[in-house]
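Table S7 (text form). Paired inputs.
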Amino acid sequence: MMEQSSLVDAMLDHRNDLSDVKSVDSVFSSDSGVMATSEIFENDLQSITTEKLFNELQRVKEDLQSKDSEIRRANEIRENTNREIEDLTVSLFETAHSMVEQAKYAQANAEQKLQIKHLENSQLKKTVNELKQILNTCRLSFNMSTTNNSVN
């Protein structure tokens, strides 16, 4: 934008210079054809300068359009990247949450199985103790019966 205003200012300054040249030429010119030559020169100079300025303006416009296009593409890339990052972040947190839930379920399941195994172990120990008592009772009874038989 700064370049455009500088370009417009330069054009206006150049026009002022040309009008100054015309006024000086008209004061010092005679009717012997000098005026016609200076007018031709002025017209040529003005058309060349205008053409150069126009070409420069076109080049600047094309550069601006190109830069605008690059900026749009960069913004699109940035927006797409931001969306991808957001999607990946959401996916990451969903996966992490799922893994935590699975771990909690597995831990609860393992604790329940452990509790059942402890209960089964206690039951088996109780059964073993009962069997030992029965065995001891049987031995005592057998010993008493053999002792009674031997005494007789």
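Next pair, protein 2 of 2.
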Amino acid sequence: MLSIREYLEAGETTISNLLFDHYQKIGLKDDEFLFLLQLFRSQNAGDLFPDLMAIAETMGKTPDTIYKLLNQLVSRGFIRIETQQNQKGQMMDTYNLLPVFQKIQLFLQTSKEKQVVANHEDEIKQLYQGFEKEFGRPLSPIELEMIGQWLNTDHYSPELIRLALREAVLNQAYSLKYIDRILLAWERKNITTKEQVAADQKKRKDSMIQNEIEQQGQTQESLPKVTLHNWLNPEDSE
């Protein structure tokens, strides 16, 4: 049975989980991955250029297989063999394992960019579907072209166009020309976000309420004073 002392003396190898999560996605095969783990283990122990014969024995592989794995990883850019000076001033070869993480970083960045593009395309698709749903019919080629112009030429965001559509629907104006006027009005006011649209709507609503209050006040002021006649006591009449 393995004792605690033997367990502790065996040491540990710390490797980012990114490597475990993405090694297949960046093109590493299982045997290449296991070989890389052996190199990480040796470097964690301070051996920057481990004996491949020892690794072959640990993995239960022939030396030729290990050399082949190394050549594959070097030729495909997962490992670099570099020469550097040690603390004693001696030149020595080392395995630079950083490229494998650079490949993971590139993969994650590319995946994120692809997801952004996919999300944008899905948003555009939903935008067109939203117009057809509100209009109750398929869009004409001219209408499709106009929406495309809003997106690609005027650079209105899908969210802003969707808000303009909702504004038009609330006013029962099922016309792209009407929506275009809304977008132009917002552009002149530098309105580009949902929050700014809501603030502008609130401002207009408050202004309408204030105008109604003022109009009611003017109406009351213009009315003639009505004399109340006290038919029981005429002297008390105003």
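The first helix runs from residue 4 to 9.
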